[in-house]
Amino acid sequence: MATKAKKNPRLASGRKRARQNIKLNAANTSLRSKYRTAVKNVEKAVVAGDKAKATELFAKAQSVIDAIADKGIFHKNKAARDKSRLSAKVKALALAA
Question: Which residue intervals make up region (Disordered) (predicted)?
Fold first, then answer.
């Protein structure tokens, strides 16, 4: 079954909310993408075995992850868990070298 077309809200407040939701959804999607990219970049550096680059990218990823958790796009515990896992990978890379 195809997705149903959304009904047009009758009340002015509902119409405004619909407009706001479009903007908020676009902003959240963009931030979520930025988050995933930051995490992916760190993981690529770890796989490549580039300790210096992984450490540098991890520092940048941490700030992105914190910002997104503060905005409530992801839960704070998810952000902490992801930072912890990335940190462990970077540390394991540093020990292996």
Answer: 1-20
